[in-house]
Write a structure and sequence with these properties.
Structural class: alpha+beta
Strand content: 15-25%
Number of strands: 11
Largest sheet: 6 strands, mixed
CATH class of the largest domain: Alpha Beta
CATH architecture of the largest domain: 2-Layer Sandwich
Distance between the termini: 54 Å
Strand order of the largest sheet: 1-2-6-3-5-4
CATH topology of the largest domain: Cytochrome Bc1 Complex, Chain A, domain 1
Order of helices and strands: HHEEEHHEEHHHHHEHEEHHEEHHHHHEH
Number of domains: 2
CATH superfamily of the largest domain: Metalloenzyme, LuxS/M16 peptidase-like
């Protein structure tokens, strides 16, 4: 069954209340092993189309950084596109472009991930390049200065020059103050500016080692051939020192934290309400994901229908749930309609939460939330790259690769009572952060 057919079945299921997972999901089959240097390898064959993908998942994100040197993990996401001892500066992207491939990367609080998708006859090339970057990256003054400018420009575009751009930076600073989650992966431009060449090299040598990575190869390939490539290219990379995983110590919150930000980029008042949530793998996380879908995910959610459709006090009502390796957050977002009172937006959002705490959810909402979970689970494995990313996450996060196949069972175990219980447990508190963004006075006059 094609992805389009699966999604069509899922949409019908959302309307009729029938399950789709059991009939339509085929568990991913894979082989896994570990090289002598500590690199964890997962191979997933899919010979349906002549496409392949590689994912190299390094277990290092912003929470691993020195608080005085934030932004290093994200900086290396960019620096890895410089050159190596065997690849000329700026040549990494050119290699894959000529091979008809696509490469990219992303950084989060817990990980930095590099991924490639290309015709399967280019798979050997992809592995050679990534093995080069693993230990032979050119960490020098020219590359560092080039990427300093790139990262600073990215920060300006995404944070400094965007409406509500600093909301997540402020939210995590206040919600997780005093912990490794107290800053976002973009980091501080000032920290990157003053860091020395030695500091960058030390970070690279500490974390960009085979024993801190998971390699996934997914798609159309011959397993025996790929194993040989892996042994030659990655097996020769020296093992690094054992990684000391930082433990996130989370100071207690003592009541509500409110801050108003005058934002000359915003056209309308915006509200961001953050609560502490659960970490990845916590049993409450599956009920919380379903609950946030019901509350504020999409135009049929409770908050959207109440605030946007019925009361017409908002133009947006949504949620950003975060489940991290050692913590979690739920952020509710409301953007006021023109002329509407942002305080009313806030009160109506609390009213919808209070309604779930008091009365729970309906049978129809519960069934729809289960169907959404199934649809996300199935559609999240729609191709060789998506499968590779999911396999890498399961191994790196849970040390259980089969989690990629069994995660849906955790959603099946959730009951209606669980949704009401987690609403009460995580939302019935004054321990929250409330950020209100207000347009500048000059913009109001216009």
């Amino acid at each position: 069954m094609t992805l389009r057919q699966l999604l069509a079945v899922a949409i019908i299921a959302a309307l009729t209340g029938t399950a789709v997972y059991a009939q339509n999901y085929k568990p991913l089959k894979y082989t896994e092993y570990t090289l002598p240097n500590g690199l964890q390898v997962i191979l997933h064959r899919d010979n349906s189309v002549p496409i392949a993908a590689t994912v190299l998942h390094y277990k290092v994100g912003s929470r691993y950084e020195d608080p005085a040197r934030t932004g290093f993990a994200h900086f290396f996401e960019h620096l890895m596109f410089e050159g190596t001892d065997s690849i000329p500066r700026g040549g990494v992207g050119d290699i894959f472009q000529r091979a008809g491939g696509e490469l990219n990367a992303f950084t989060s609080f817990d990980k930095t991930v590099y991924h490639v998708k290309l015709p399967s006859n280019g798979l050997q090339l992809a592995m050679w390049v990534d093995a080069q970057r693993m230990r032979d990256l050119r960490v020098d003054t020219i590359g560092i200065e080039t990427q300093r400018g790139v990262v600073k420009e990215e920060r300006k575009q995404r944070y400094d020059n965007s409406p509500y751009g600093v909301w997540n930076e402020k939210m995590f600073t206040l919600l997780f103050k005093g912990s490794g989650y107290g800053w976002t992966p973009i980091g501080s431009s000032q920290h990157i500016d003053v860091a020395s060449l030695k500091e960058f090299r030390d970070f690279y040598d500490q974390y960009y080692v085979p024993n801190n990575a998971v390699l996934v190869v997914s798609g159309d390939f011959d397993e025996n051939e790929v194993r040989k490539y892996i042994d030659v290219y990655y097996g020769s990379r020296p093992r690094g020192k054992d990684i000391q995983r930082p433990v996130v110590a989370m100071p207690a919150m003592n009541g509500e934290i409110r801050e108003t930000i005058n934002d000359n980029k915003a056209q309308l008042p915006g509200l961001f309400i953050g609560y502490r949530g659960v970490k990845l793998g916590d049993p409450d996380g599956y009920a919380m994901e379903m609950l946030t879908d019901i509350l504020a995910n999409g135009e049929s959610s409770r908050m959207y229908r109440r605030l946007v459709d019925k009361e017409q006090v908002a133009v947006q009502a949504s949620t950003f749930p975060y489940q991290l390796e050692q913590a979690g957050a739920i952020v509710l977002v409301g953007i006021a309609a023109p002329g509407a009172d942002i305080a009313k937006v806030e009160n109506l959002m609390y009213a919808e939460i209070d309604s779930v705490i008091k009365n729970g959810v309906t049978d129809a909402e519960f069934q729809k939330a289960k169907n959404i979970a199934e649809m996300k689970f199935i559609s999240g494995k729609k191709g060789v790259l998506e499968n590779a990313l999911a396999l890498a996450d399961a191994k790196a996060t849970f040390n259980n690769t089969d989690y990629v196949n069994t995660e849906i069972q955790n959603f099946y175990r959730v009951t209606k009572a669980d949704l009401q219980r987690v609403a009460k447990k995580y939302f019935e508190t004054k321990n929250r952060v409330v950020l209100t963004f207000m347009p500048s006075a000059e913009k109001k006059k216009k």
